[in-house]
Amino acid sequence: MVKQRNRRAQSVGTVPVALTIAGSDSSAGAGIQADLKTFSALGVYGLTAITCVVAETPGKVSRIEPISAEIVHEQIAVLARNFPIAAAKTGLLCSGEIVEAVARGIDLLRKIDNHIPLVVDPVTVATSGDMLLAPEAMKIYERELFPIATLLTPNLNEAGNLIGEPIRDLDAMRKAGKQLQEKYSVSILLKGGHLTGDNAVDLLFIGDKISEFSAPFARGVATHGTGCTCSAGITAGLAAGLSLEEAVCHAKEFVTASIAQRLRWKSKSGENIDALNHSI
Questions:
Q1: CB of 54 closer than 8 Å to CB of 27
Q2: Can you tell me whether residue 12 is helix, strand or coil?
Q3: How big is the CA angle at 207 (ends 244 and 248), to the nearest 5 degrees?
Q4: Is 228 tagged catalytic?
Q5: Annotated catalytic residue 227
Q6: Going residue by residue through the chain (280 aa), what tens digit of pLDDT does each one get?
Q7: Active-site choice (150, 223, 229, 256)
Q8: Which listed residue (127, 226, 235, 256) is catalytic?
Q9: Which of 63, 22, 52 is nearest to 228 (CA)?
Q10: pTM greater than 0.85
C-alpha cells in the first residue's frame, strides 16, 4: 500500500511531497481540504496553491470568490523553487485567467524537473449541480492544460460535456474514454460513479489498454468531494513512486473506504449531512 511504502520512506526522512492547486471548500469535504487530508492519510506531505474560496455546505454552494491569477502563479512558483515536488494535481480553477496562470506555473515546475506527473481533475460542476467554472475557461483548459497533463480524471458529466453527448452506460464509457484519449493525447480515468447499478465502475485508458476498477455502490449516501479525493489519492501514489495504474487502484480503494466509513451529522433542519472519512 502507499501508506506502507511511505512509512519506510519516513524512517529515512524522505517523505514524498505533492502539490494541489485547487479551491478552498469551507465545509472541508472537497477541494484543498480534501486533498490535504488525503495526502496526509497516504503518508505524503501536501503543499497548496489556492485558486478560489468557496462558501458551501454539502449540497449547496453559496458563493465563489476567485483569487487573483497573479497570486495563484506566485504560490506555485515559490513552492517550485523551494520544495522537491514529486507530483501535482489541479482541481477547481474557476476562471480562464487562473487556468493560464496554472499552466505557466506547471511549466516553471517542469523546468526544474520535467518528469513531474500532473493529474488534472477538470472540475466544472459541483455535486449539488452548481456551476463552478466560467464557460470560456474550458477552451483554455483544452489549449493550455490538457496537453501537459499526465492524466485527466473527468466524471461522466464532465466527459459528456467534453465530447458533446451524454454517457449513460458502460459501453458508452468505453467509447467516450477512447474519444477523449485520442482528442487530447493523454491518459484518461473516466469515473462512472453516476451510472445506475450495483457497482461504481471507473475505466482507465493508458495507450491501447483499458483497465476497469469496480467497487460496490453505496446507497443512501450524500457525500461530496469523491472526485477531489480520488485525484488526490492518485497524485499521492504517483508522488510515492507508484505506476499510474497502481496509483489509480490504490486511490479507488481509499475512496471506497472513505465512503464506507463516512461521517454523519444532523443539520439544523434535521437532515443528514454526510462527509467522507479521510482518517481511515
A1: no
A2: coil
A3: 20
A4: yes
A5: yes
A6: 444 444 444 444 689 999 999 999 999 999 999 999 999 999 999 999 999 999 988 778 889 999 999 999 999 999 999 999 999 999 999 999 999 999 999 999 999 999 999 999 998 876 656 667 777 888 999 999 999 999 999 999 899 989 999 999 999 999 999 999 999 999 999 998 767 677 889 999 999 999 999 988 776 777 789 999 999 999 999 999 999 999 999 999 999 999 989 998 888 888 888 889 999 7
A7: 223
A8: 226
A9: 22
A10: yes
Active site residue 175: no
Sheet with 60-66: strands ordered across? 60-66, 45-57, 17-25, 85-90, 118-120, 151-152, 187-192, 199-206, 209-216
Catalytic residue among 37, 89, 191, 252: 191
State the catalytic residue, choosing from 23, 192, 227, 237: 227
Q: Which residues contact 207 (CB under 8 A, 6 or more apart)?
A: 187
Amino acid identity of residue 193, one-letter, is G
In sequence order, what are the residues at sequence separation of 6 or more whose Cβ sits closer than 8 angstroms to the Cβ of residue 154?
121, 122, 162, 180, 188, 190, 191
| Selected catalytic residue, list 225, 229, 237, 256 | 225
C-alpha span between 211 and 222 (Å, rounded): 27
Is 225 noted as a catalytic residue in this protein?
yes
Pairing, β 263-266 against β 272-275: antiparallel
